[in-house]
């Protein structure tokens, strides 16, 4: 008995807890490149029922008095789907036949298979019947389109790799052989297509006890984390870019810096959409990150910012030792060596002249009268980088000046530098680039003792921060467009004006992963962000419908005016000119 209990304990210790919580895991294809988890019913609760029923979207849905749809909205369980569990959207990269593409699948658990089958038969067209193969059932929708299949526990909605489909159809249509029976060829093609789709769906409906997702800790940790939308991807490059994107190799190597497992959790909260992402490191990359402390932001640079409204900010710090080892580990050093030979100065001057942190800021100045006239009047642009070696910076300056002079002499640089004439100032400790002499000099001489903006204070410990003032940028955009279609522009401004700020931070390595966060903030901090997005979509729908109605009304009015316009009689034929009288000479009579 004792041995039996020990064996039972060992057996259960090998079974992932997640398998008991999410039965869908055993159906996931091992080659999945992305998995998204969400619950549409749970998301819908963030939009008040009365708001939804009073919306333009609901009125459009109910135009035809669809009783089945109304019943579903009142009680989603009538569909037979178990909405107490999340749906999973799964993408699989497909390179079959040398044709790259992606197929998508939506998985969901069934609560009542008979109810689900009845729902499917109600929405299916007469020429798209449900086919039964043992415990599996399948519905082919349209010609070569998506497929819905299910068994007693789970359903999957599958879309084919359209690139394969389009290429094969193109080959079929371009076949100009004289004796080709086109209808027979299409019949054979449709048979092969449906068989391929059926086999693919039934494979997806087959449980896979040894599925690698059971033992993928980042994935299982994500799926047991609370969140409105959860995303996992394998960190691999998109196969569709191979052979197309000339920088594909570079991107592939850069992606290797971010790990093979990436997860994100997105939540719709009051006043904002928040997201947290993790890139999990493995092997040598993880060892390198563990060796170096996380760099922090240089707050002194932010304390030098002039008075005004911050429109955009990027500030970042990098641990130099970490960066060097990462470049070596990923093979990017070989790529940099090849780049060096094509640049007319020593590339190492960039890394030796400057320290490991920088700031880029765009500010709407409070002192517009002090700014020079021009397109950027009132806008201050500041790039600031601490100096590590002033002598190296002087060398870099001479090299860049030589290049710019060469471009001017050849005439190639005139167009490029026409609207961008930066001012560079630096001393022993700081380099500043701006579009204004006053701004560059003032920033350089600022002691850096100003107050740090309150909202920035909580981000000091991260090595990277980016911010965009969406509200101010939208306001400035529409100020420049005065004189256009005022009504339409005002409506767009009312919609986009609801956005407040986008803040992205992160770059810190903790618990085996590189972390980053995002906040998409709204002006209204009291309402849920999803409800605000719904209101915006609803307003846009109403405006589009109103514009269509107005256009239709105008066309009808013009048509009626044309019909009512009296038809003028045809013009009279032109008057014929009088016929010429032939003059006959009179003979003289002798007498």
Structure description:
This protein is of the alpha+beta class and 591 residues long. 39% of the residues lie in helices and 22% in strands. The chain has an 18-stranded antiparallel beta sheet, sandwiched between helices. It is extended and about 120 Å long. The termini are far apart.
How much helix is in the residues?
25-40%
What does the overall shape look like?
Answer: extended
- Outline the low-pLDDT stretches: 1-20, 240-247
CA radius of gyration? 35 Å
Q: What does the average pLDDT come to?
A: 80
Largest sheet: 18 strands, antiparallel
Tally the helices: what do you get? Answer: 22
Distance between the termini: 170 Å
What is this entry, summarized?
Helix content is 39%, strand content 22%. It is α+β, with helices and mostly antiparallel strands.
């Amino acid at each position: 008995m004792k041995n039996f209990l020990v064996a039972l304990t060992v057996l259960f210790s090998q079974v992932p807890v997640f398998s008991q919580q999410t039965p869908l895991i055993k159906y996931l294809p091992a080659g999945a490149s992305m998995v998204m988890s969400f619950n549409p019913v749970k998301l819908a609760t963030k939009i008040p029922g009365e708001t939804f029923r009073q919306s333009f979207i609901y009125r459009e849905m109910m135009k035809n008095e669809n009783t089945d749809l109304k019943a579903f909205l009142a009680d989603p369980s009538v569909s037979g789907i178990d909405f107490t569990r999340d749906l999973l959207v799964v993408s699989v990269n497909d390179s079959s036949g040398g044709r790259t593409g992606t197929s998508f699948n939506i998985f969901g658990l069934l609560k009542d298979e008979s109810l689900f089958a009845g729902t499917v038969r109600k929405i299916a067209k007469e020429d798209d019947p449900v086919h039964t193969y043992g415990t599996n059932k399948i519905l082919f929708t349209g010609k070569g389109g998506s497929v819905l299949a299910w068994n007693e526990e789970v359903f999957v909605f599958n879309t084919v790799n359209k690139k394969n489909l389009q290429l094969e159809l193109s080959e079929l249509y371009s076949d100009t052989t004289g004796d080709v029976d086109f209808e027979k060829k299409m019949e054979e093609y449709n048979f092969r297509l449906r068989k391929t789709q059926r086999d693919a769906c039934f494979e997806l409906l087959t449980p896979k006890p040894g599925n690698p997702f059971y033992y993928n800790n980042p994935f299982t940790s994500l799926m047991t984390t609370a969140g409105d939308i959860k995303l996992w991807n394998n960190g691999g490059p998109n196969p569709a870019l191979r052979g197309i994107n000339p920088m594909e190799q570079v991107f592939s190597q850069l992606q290797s810096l971010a790990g093979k497992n990436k997860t994100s959790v997105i939540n719709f909260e009051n006043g904002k959409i928040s997201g947290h992402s993790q890139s999990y490191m493995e092997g040598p990359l993880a060892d390198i990150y563990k060796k170096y402390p996380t760099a922090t932001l240089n707050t002194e640079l932010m304390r030098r910012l002039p008075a005004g409204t911050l429109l955009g900010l990027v500030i970042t710090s990098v641990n130099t030792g970490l960066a060097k080892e990462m470049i070596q580990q990923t093979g990017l050093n070989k790529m940099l060596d090849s780049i060096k030979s094509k640049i007319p100065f020593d590339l190492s001057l960039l890394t030796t002249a400057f320290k490991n942190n920088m700031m880029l800021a765009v500010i709407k100045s409070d002192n517009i009268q002090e700014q020079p006239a021009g397109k950027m009047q009132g806008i201050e642009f500041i790039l600031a980088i601490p100096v590590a070696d002033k002598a190296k910076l002087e060398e870099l300056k001479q090299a860049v000046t030589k290049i710019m002079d060469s471009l001017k002499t050849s005439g190639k640089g005139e167009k490029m530098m026409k609207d961008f004439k930066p001012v560079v100032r630096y001393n022993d400790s700081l380099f500043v680039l701006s579009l204004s002499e006053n701004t560059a000099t003032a920033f350089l001489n600022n002691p850096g003792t100003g107050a740090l903006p309150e909202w920035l204070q909580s981000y000091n410990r991260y090595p990277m921060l980016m911010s965009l003032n969406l509200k101010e940028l939208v306001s400035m955009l529409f100020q420049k467009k005065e004189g256009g279609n005022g009504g339409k522009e005002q409506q767009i401004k009312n919609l986009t004006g609801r956005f407040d700020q986008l803040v992205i931070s992160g770059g810190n390595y903790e618990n085996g992963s590189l972390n980053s966060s995002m906040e998409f903030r709204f002006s209204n901090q009291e309402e849920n962000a999803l409800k605000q997005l719904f209101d915006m979509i609803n307003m846009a729908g109403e405006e589009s419908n109103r514009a269509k109605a107005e256009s239709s009304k105008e066309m009808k009015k013009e048509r009626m005016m044309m019909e009512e316009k009296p038809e003028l009689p045809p013009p009279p034929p032109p008057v014929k000119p009088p016929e010429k009288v032939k003059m006959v000479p009179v003979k003289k009579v002798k007498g």
